[in-house]
Specification:
Blueprint (H helix, E strand, L loop, with lengths): L4 H6 L11 H5 L14 H14 L3 E4 L4 H5 L3 H4 L2 H7 L10 H10 L4 E4 L1
Helix pairs in contact: 3-7
């Protein structure tokens, strides 16, 4: 069941077709929810690729709090080590920051929110 994570999330979308490539399914949608199996670099790479394709105006990360999001500056968006430190990521319990950073970088102008 885990290998169908994206399909299950997108199945509720109008116009869904299991035969359509995922790139077509996420185009022209107001909201796209991309899940992943934590600590799976391939899933995060797919998220980053699709995020770049979608070019969203906002990104929501479940692993960020409102306090952490408030620490994200435009300068830190381009500094992975500085951003990781500012977010105190090493104490967060989440997998490697690089997997999440690539998603942030795929939409460099998107607002970031914590969930």
């Amino acid at each position: 069941m885990k290998k169908f994570l994206f399909v299950l999330i997108l199945a509720a979308m109008p116009g869904f077709s299991a035969a359509a490539p995922i790139e077509e399914m996420v185009q022209d949608r107001e909201v796209v929810i991309l899940g992943e199996m934590h600590d799976n670099p391939a899933h995060h790479e797919t998220q980053a690729r699709l995020t770049g394709l979608i070019a969203p105006s906002a990104l929501v990360f479940e692993m960020l709090s409102a306090d952490q999001v408030a620490r994200i500056t435009s300068d830190l968006r381009g500094d992975p080590e500085g951003l990781e430190k500012a977010l105190n990521w090493s104490d967060s319990g989440w997998p490697d920051f690089a997997m999440y950073y690539q998603v942030m970088q795929a939409a460099p102008d998107a607002a970031i929110f914590g969930a």
